[in-house]
Amino acid sequence: MTAKEQGFLLLTSQLGDMERKPLTVAQFRSLAMRVTQMEKPKQSRELAEDDLVALGYDRRTALRIVTLLSEEDRLSSYINRGNRQDCYPISRVSEAYPKAVRKRLGLDAPGCLWAKGDVALLNRPAVSLVGSRQLSDANRLFAETVGREVAKQGFTLVSGNARGADRAAQQACLENGGSVISVVADELEKCPLVKNVLYLSEDSFDLPFSAMRALSRNRVIHTLGYITIVAQCNGQNGGTWAGTLKNLHNNWSPVFCYADGSSTALELKQLGATLIASKDLSDLCALQPNVESLF
How many domains does the chain have? Predict the structure, then answer.
């Protein structure tokens, strides 16, 4: 790990501790801008509290930043503990960080993605799938068809490993010789090492499930794929709706929604999604959005 990557993680990661208060995106950006304007010391040394005060920080904030940077042993211990569980960090300043996520989310991109499995999958073209946990038979069949076609056509499937649409598509993809990137909202360390599967977790490898983590990881799912397919969305609430709405609002990736005749699907169409049927999945490269977003 480079000094740049280490400093970035020290300043921006919780290191598995919900009580740790790293810098926010805005705070880190401000610090980075100020440091680039700082006159370089004559000899190499660590950033000191007085340096930060000279940059305009008050003593309390300066001490907080220096304290975060001083926790190298804590960071090393956390990384080593993750490595023993086959979990490895990819920070936003790392070369291995997925370019699509960095480009589409900008400063909102997760500071660190912990990975477990085949990291090489991040370099392959991918299709994202989202959907409800409670599926009708027709929508489940559609999700399975997405997984199968993604595998047959040489893409990687990106999903969230939740019951329902996610797992239906993931299982179908793997059963047909495909590969899966699964962005989880619970403990990455508990995920099994599986051939052709990469598990990702935002910020930490050992934090338990929370609704906030589940909602936050949606933006990673929607930006990793070159397109996003919605297998089913049950009403204007929940993670599928919230994540898809943000995608349409921010234009992260073209959204295609299964035309199941539901009022939610029609609402997503009005907001910029393109409705498709199972037959449209036979050539994923040919899918093109045909409705302008209302945002």
Answer: 2
